[in-house]
Known about the structure:
Layout: E1 2-7, E2 13-19, H1 25-28, E3 33-35, E4 50-52, E5 62-64, E6 73-74, E7 80-81, E8 97-102, E9 107-112
Antiparallel strand pairs: 1-2, 1-3, 4-5, 6-7, 8-9
Amino acid sequence: MRTYAEVDENNMVVNVAVFDDDNTPVDLGWSGWYETAEGIRKNIAGPGFTFVPEADGYPLGLFHSPAPFSGWVLDENYDWQPPADKPYPEGFGEEDSQWFWNNDTEDWEESVYKPPPGEESEE
């Protein structure tokens, strides 16, 4: 059994299907189908993925997922990155300080844990 992704004219994956080894889209003469498996084409394709037919280091092309958040950009390795570097201000990494990506503001924001009223902190 082998898995293939059907890619449309815009290089978007529209379908993923499993075929018998002796009855693949290649055997059937279908165009626009590309094998997808672990270790082939960087990622295993899924609907909504993009197929890049020519990419450095991937002679068979590669698949990449849709952006995880609005505003994220693909780097040179076809991995999604936030548009702004994660900040490392004074106090970063200290207990009770956490940074998260806010999709609404498209920036990193700090969240500091505040115990509920009446809960005493350990000091």
